[in-house]
Amino acid sequence: MKYLCLLVFLLMLTSCATVLNENHQSVYFYTSKNVEHIKLKDSVYELPVRINVPRAKEELKVVVVTDSTDLNYTIQSELSDRFRYLNLIGVFFAPVNYAVDLTNNRRFEYPKMVYLDPMKADGVLQDSSIKIADFSRNRKYSSYEPDTQKGDIYFYLTISPFSYLNVELPEANRKNEGVGTGFGEVGFSYYYTNRNYLSVGAGANTTMIIFPLYENNVYAYTIKLANFHQFNRLNVGYGVFWGRNENKEYDYDKNEIVEDPTIESSHSTVGLVAAVHFEVARNFHVGFSYKPSLYRISSPKKSINNHLLSVELTYKLRLRNKKN
Question: Residue 146, Cβ neighbours under 10 Å: how many?
């Protein structure tokens, strides 16, 4: 148990942007004719071109070289979506994560595609710089639609910052409920149509608050199979799950914590799944799921009324693109 706690603590020290973003990013430059050259620092490239540039807070200076004049452009950096959204809970629950990202240039990004419009650069009369944007990122994302296709496969990782459990403990002849933080779910999604997919995942939730790590807690381990319908950025799913609930009590002594807990109660259940997710940034979803347990399949077998409600932050990684 102490190694698991150590692992959780180390993960809390790991920042999202630092891990997921690289030191460099790819930027695609192009113009209407694509016959010019672009100068970036001491290098000259023929347009159109994709260049790996280092992430930085500073503006990126580029020069378009034509037969008659040089056109100067200044491209602003901004905070990446991964820094903005994946660190939403870091400010409160893992401030070290947030502090690491705040000192790292990986939290910044430039537009992924840059159109160098000659009408916006006055390189003939003035040596002026202009600021351009990636087709106005906010307006671009407001009209964004997922480009999922039949046959796509995604791996997903879900973090549950808040979970509510209400579990009947047959051996203790009582119910235990509480709100916890941490844990989540991992799994895979397969698109059997362009807008519908099956999701298989395994997860864990607990009434454990991050600190203290040792106390009496209820743990819920689940394996789910769900069918999702995708309406633009809104994902609505339903399905079934198998779950195992454990109530663990830790024995304390004066100077040390006993690693092996006394399991007061453990039992297996089956139930239903309902989930709603919204894609707030590309491949990053915020939502919640509800898993009511309907029947206990371990002894003593009987109909039950357990509840598991979770707030979910999910990042999806495409493993296979059918178009490729």
Answer: 16
Among candidate residues 143, 144, 197, 138, the one with its CA nearest the CA of residue 318 = 197
The separation between the first and the last C-alpha atoms of the chain, rounded to the nearest angstrom, is 44
pLDDT in tens, 253-311: 545 555 555 556 788 999 999 999 999 888 899 999 999 999 999 888 888 889 999 99
Q: Poorest-confidence range of 14-23, 119-128, 130-139, 177-186?
A: 130-139
What does DSSP say about strands 113-115 and 24-30: parallel, antiparallel, or unpaired? parallel
pLDDT greater than 70 at residue 100: no
Distances in Å between the alpha carbon of 12 and those of 82, 99, 108, 156, 258?
16, 11, 21, 19, 24
- Does residue 17 sit in helix, strand or coil? helix
Alpha carbon of 266 to those of 92, 168, 178, 183, 299: distances in Å?
A: 32, 10, 17, 19, 10
Q: Is 48 helix (H, G, I), strand (E, B) or coil?
A: coil
What residues have CB less than 8 Å from 288, skipping those under 6 apart? Answer: 275, 276, 309, 310, 311, 312
- Is there a cis peptide before residue 146, judged by omega within 30 degrees of 0? no
CB burial class (10 A; 0-12, 13-18, 19+) of residue 169? middle
Its pTM surpasses 0.85: no
Angle in degrees, CA 245, 262, 249, rounded to 5: 70
